[in-house]
């Protein structure tokens, strides 16, 4: 995506998750510095409403979805963006809503 000059942004909650997973202060500072280049997406009221709708749709179909994953999906959906993830939970979410997943190694997602 970066090679193709595709705009990339990080949801604020993803930034928090990434930085929460490091083991040392040095790793934290390095990762924080690397992520500074990316704009942060903040959720607005409509994103939270859409996340709740996604969660409800999942529940109706017997799929358990984390609240935070539903919010991340809502942020991508509301901005008509591809979501880059290696987390298979989002593949399940994409079967419920119109979430577009970016698949590594493909040009169009």
What is the secondary structure topology, with strand pairs?
Blueprint: E1 10-11, H1 12-20, H2 25-35, E2 40-41, H3 45-60, H4 67-78, E3 82-84, H5 89-94, E4 100-102
Parallel strand pairs: 1-2, 3-4
Helix pairs in contact: 1-2, 3-4
Task: Write up what this structure looks like.
The chain has 109 residues and is mainly α. 50% of the residues lie in helices and 9% in strands. The strands form 2 sheets. The protein has a two-stranded parallel ribbon. It has a two-stranded parallel sheet with strand order 3-4. β3 (82-84), α5 (89-94) and β4 (100-102) form a beta-alpha-beta unit. α1 runs antiparallel to α2 (25-35) and α3 (45-60) packs across α4 (67-78). The chain is globular. The N and C termini lie close together (10 Å). The relative contact order is 0.14.
- Lateral arrangement of strands in the main beta sheet: 1-2
Second CATH tier, the architecture of the largest domain? 3-Layer(aba) Sandwich
- Please give the count of helices: 5
Largest sheet: 2 strands, parallel
Q: Which bin fits the share of residues in helices?
A: 40-55%
Mean pLDDT: 91
What ranges have pLDDT less than 50 throughout 5 or more consecutive residues? Answer: none
How many domain units? 2
Query: Any idea what the CATH superfamily of the largest domain is called?
Result: 5'-nuclease
Q: Oligomeric state of the chains?
A: single chain
Any idea of the CATH topology of the largest domain? Rossmann fold
N- to C-terminal distance: 10 Å
Number of strands: 4
CATH class of the largest domain: Alpha Beta
The Rg value, from CA coordinates, equals 15 Å
Strand content: 5-15%
Order of helices and strands: EHHEHHEHE
Report the structural category: mainly alpha
